[in-house]
């Protein structure tokens, strides 16, 4: 039996505007409302609405079909404000009872690495937002960009989660397969670890429209046959990807929606296949082994590490400055200040400062509002300086 | 090859580019006879450059690479009557002298650099039937910023491009200008970006000025094309937030008196330092002294100075209207007229120390891929293509 487990990540940051040194101390806004609204509306109409429609159809057609989503707090707020019809369609999915929602940090942040307290606050914020909006309480946790190690597993287990999601990176798996459940080394109360099958996931998320790929074009029945091949060698096929894959990263013209529409039917043709959500998998299967992951891993780039966000000295300087203000911000009791400080924690801001692949021009450029990582850094640091001034005037 | 005086006798990027390219071509085993206009008091009119396949033939002339017809008339009146009465006359006189050299020398391809040498190239082509390449380092539209384009100069440029069998543009930016303003078909134009020699002439130096203030550098001809006025306006804005900053302007040009006056008028007499024309080691030193190099050009066909700054470990802020911005990514780019952004970026580099560190480190790595060898290989390929076409025609 192979259970296909679909989890889609839905996230949009509050992109910051071109904030110059001359804006410092002048009570200028940090976020580019116009750009954020435009991008959100575009993604809603090109991806969220049409994809949700397909998912809803699939739920109607196939009683066995299931899926799961993790929506960051920043995207939920923006949907509420600028694309309520898209938010409604997510609610409609949740109402079917066959769509599970996961928890994450509200601000899609790297907080765990810098402040456990802030991390915990944001996870709680997210959980209560989901409860309020969808009437569900998530039991499985996914950290920003699937950043994971033993310590994170231990921490979120203590917060009450039954399962946690991570990247099935080669260097942590070795000869082992991502198609089983594992026990984090630090788990004390039976929390389970689900690992992304990155080969199958990336076949859809990255390679689907790649004409130089030997398997192009990827059809639903071909993909289903790869999934069925897991039978006998695993219990699940964890297909985890950005939801923007559908309609944004892969344009409608590539046939991605047709693929999504037909893939579940093809998979269900095989009598040994079904669909499960992460929470169901955690309830159904026992771990086959222990995962001891000391260094932080993520689902990004070939390195599967944190170098996309924390790989150069600009990124380190910016994030150090940001978390260095935590105590003062919280003590100030100023809710606006706190909210803006939190919005600045979103991992995307640091991603825009990545110089790793910059000269080659690639996936890092997607949705990137800056000409260069250096421009991203200047705007960000100017904002940090403005925040400091606001804090200081607050104290007086 | 009809080229220009090499460093240190050059007055700008054209001489530097000719030098880098001819040296690299010569290393590829291509024999070059380089014809140069030269002032009468300089060396013999025929010499072989030791250790290279290069031979230099000089023609005594008052031509220098960045002359405009009006500037020439001043030169003419101060010099003897050997030279032509107007710049165009002098171009014609130079081209006649070039004709006799073309008849004496044995060569396969004619390669000429910028408009003052195009006529010489055309005549050499007519006399010998050899293919002609016009190498465009700048157009009249760049030099004048598109204002008051000189019709005579434009005509010479256009005639050169039309007679050429192929055109080399120093950037896509320039290629587009050639297509747009000179009506040349894109198929005839290939882009060969400039490069820079890798060794800096100076190493770890200590500069007293650096201990006291941050230094922002402008280096280039002080002419409309280079945007020195935008540099000044940005300087004023930077000083409003980072007062302990000096602005060094290195170079000379027709806007110099205006710029000096303007700096004083803007209250920056003790903040802006004018160095006059620098050459050789002084150039590498001034780059090293600077915390950031700014190239706010209105129109920059290439911009070798940006590469020179990187070579000396200095982060760069460059105009989007430049050829060099097509090949350097680890830098800050700016619209030359956007003084606010220019000042913002300068302050960013001065204030946040990680920024210049990352920029110079990454740009330095990027520079290793930008070599004169690559440029020379592209030129050599073009020579071969043209020769093949000529052979086919001869059949």
Structure commentary:
The complex is a heterodimer of chains A (396) and B (395). Chain A is α/β, with parallel strands linked by helices and 396 residues long. Chain A contains 17 helices and 10 strands. Chain A has helices spanning 33-61, 73-82, 84-95, 111-114, 116-134, 150-158, 170-173, 198-205, 220-228, 256-269, 278-284, 307-310, 313-324, 326-332, 335-343, 347-351, 373-395; strands spanning 2-10, 67-71, 99-101, 140-142, 163-167, 181-184, 192-196, 236-242, 273-275, 290-291. In chain A, strand 1, helix 1 (33-61) and strand 2 (67-71) form a beta-alpha-beta unit. In chain A, helix 1 crosses helix 2. The longest helix of chain A is centred in the first third of the chain and has 29 residues, at 33-61. Chain A is globular, with a radius of gyration of 21 Å. Chain A starts with a strand and ends with a helix. The model of chain A has no long low-confidence stretch (mean pLDDT 95). In chain B, helix 1 crosses helix 14 (372-394) and helix 8 crosses helix 12 (339-351). The model of chain B has no long low-confidence stretch (mean pLDDT 91). Chain B is α/β, with parallel strands linked by helices and 395 residues long. Chain B is built from 14 helices and 13 strands. In chain B, strands 10-9-8-11-12-13 form a 6-stranded parallel sheet, sandwiched between helices. A 4-stranded parallel sheet of chain B has the order 4-5-6-7, sandwiched between helices. Chain B is 45% helix and 16% strand. The chains are: A alpha/beta (396), B alpha/beta (395). The A-B interface holds A 18, 20-22, 312-314, 316-317, 355, 358-359, 371-375, 377-378, 381-382 and B 237, 240-241, 329-333, 340-341, 343-345, 347-348, 351-352, 354-355, 357-359, 362, 366.
């Amino acid at each position: 039996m192979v259970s296909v487990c679909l989890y889609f990540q839905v996230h949009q940051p509050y992109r910051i505007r071109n904030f110059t040194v001359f804006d410092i101390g002048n009570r200028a806004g940090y976020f580019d409302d116009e750009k954020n609204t435009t991008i959100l509306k575009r993604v809603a109409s090109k991806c969220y609405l049409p994809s949700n429609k397909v998912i809803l159809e699939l739920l109607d057609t196939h009683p066995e079909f299931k899926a799961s989503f993790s929506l960051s707090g920043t995207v939920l707020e923006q949907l509420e404000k600028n694309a309520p019809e898209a938010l409604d369609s997510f609610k409609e999915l949740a109402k079917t009872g066959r769509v599970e929602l996961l928890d994450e940090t509200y601000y899609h942040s790297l907080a765990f690495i810098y402040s456990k307290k802030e991390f915990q606050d944001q996870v709680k914020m997210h959980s209560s937002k989901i409860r309020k909006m969808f009437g569900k309480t998530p039991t499985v946790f996914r950290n920003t960009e699937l950043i994971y190690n033993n310590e994170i597993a231990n921490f979120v287990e203590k917060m009450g989660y039954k399962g946690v999601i991570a990247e099935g990176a080669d260097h942590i798996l070795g000869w082992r397969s991502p198609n089983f459940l594992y026990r984090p080394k630090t788990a004390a109360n039976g929390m389970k670890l689900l690992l992304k099958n990155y080969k199958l996931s990336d076949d859809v998320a990255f390679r689907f429209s790649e004409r130089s790929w030997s398997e192009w074009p990827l059809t639903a029945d071909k993909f289903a046959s790869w999934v069925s091949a897991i039978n006998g060698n695993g219990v699940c096929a964890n297909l985890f990807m950005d939801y923007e894959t559908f309609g944004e990263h892969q344009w409608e013209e590539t046939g991605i929606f047709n693929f999504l529409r037909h893939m579940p039917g093809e998979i269900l043709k095989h009598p040994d296949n079904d669909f499960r959500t992460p929470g169901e998998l955690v309830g159904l299967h026992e771990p086959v082994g222990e995962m001891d992951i000391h260094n932080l891993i993520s689902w990004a780039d070939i390195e599967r590490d944190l170098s996309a966000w924390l790989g150069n000295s600009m990124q380190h300087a910016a994030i150090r400055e940001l978390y260095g203000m935590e105590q003062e911000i919280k003590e100030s009791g100023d809710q606006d200040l706190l909210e803006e400080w939190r919005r600045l924690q979103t991992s995307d801001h640091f991603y825009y400062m990545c110089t790793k692949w910059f000269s080659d021009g690639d996936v890092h450029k997607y949705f990137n509002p800056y000409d260069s990582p250096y421009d991203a850094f200047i705007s960000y640091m100017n904002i940090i300086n403005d925040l400091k001034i606001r804090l200081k005037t607050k104290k007086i | 090859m009809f080229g220009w005086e090499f460093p240190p006798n050059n007055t700008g990027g054209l001489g530097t580019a000719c030098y880098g390219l001819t040296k690299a071509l010569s290393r590829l085993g291509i024999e070059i006879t380089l014809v140069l206009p030269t002032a009468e008091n300089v060396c013999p009119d025929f010499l072989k450059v030791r250790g290279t396949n290069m031979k230099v033939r000089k023609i005594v002339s008052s031509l220098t690479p960045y002359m405009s017809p009006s500037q020439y008339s001043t030169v003419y009146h101060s010099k003897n009557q050997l030279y032509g009465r107007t710049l165009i006359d002098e171009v014609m006189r130079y081209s006649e002298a070039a004709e006799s050299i073309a008849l004496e020398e044995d060569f396969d391809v004619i390669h000429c650099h910028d408009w003052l040498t195009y006529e010489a190239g055309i005549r050499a082509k007519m006399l010998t039937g050899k293919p002609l390449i016009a190498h465009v380092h700048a157009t009249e539209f760049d030099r004048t910023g598109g204002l008051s384009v000189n019709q005579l100069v434009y005509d010479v440029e256009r005639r050169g491009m039309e007679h050429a069998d192929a055109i080399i543009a120093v950037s896509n930016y320039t290629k587009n200008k050639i297509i747009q303003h000179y009506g040349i078909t894109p198929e005839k134009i290939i882009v060969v970006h400039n490069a820079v020699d890798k060794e800096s002439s100076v190493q770890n130096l200590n500069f007293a000025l650096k201990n006291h203030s941050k230094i922002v550098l402008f280096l280039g001809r002080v002419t409309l094309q280079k945007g020195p006025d935008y540099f000044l306006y940005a300087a004023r804005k930077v000083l409003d937030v980072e007062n302990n900053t000096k602005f060094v302007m290195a170079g000379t040009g027709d806007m110099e008196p205006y710029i000096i006056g303007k700096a004083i008028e803007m209250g920056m007499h003790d903040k802006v330092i004018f160095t006059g024309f620098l050459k050789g080691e002084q150039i590498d030193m001034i780059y090293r002294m600077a915390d950031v190099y700014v190239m706010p050009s209105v129109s920059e066909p290439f911009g070798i100075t940006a590469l020179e700054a990187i070579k000396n470990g200095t982060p760069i802020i460059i105009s989007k209207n430049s050829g060099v911005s097509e090949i350097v990514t680890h830098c800050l780019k700016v619209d030359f007229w956007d003084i606010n952004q220019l000042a913002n970026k300068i302050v960013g580099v001065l204030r946040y120390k990680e920024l210049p560190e990352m920029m110079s480190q990454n740009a330095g790595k990027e520079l290793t891929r930008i070599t004169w060898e690559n440029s020379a290989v592209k030129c050599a390929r073009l020579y071969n293509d043209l020769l093949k076409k000529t052979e086919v025609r001869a059949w």
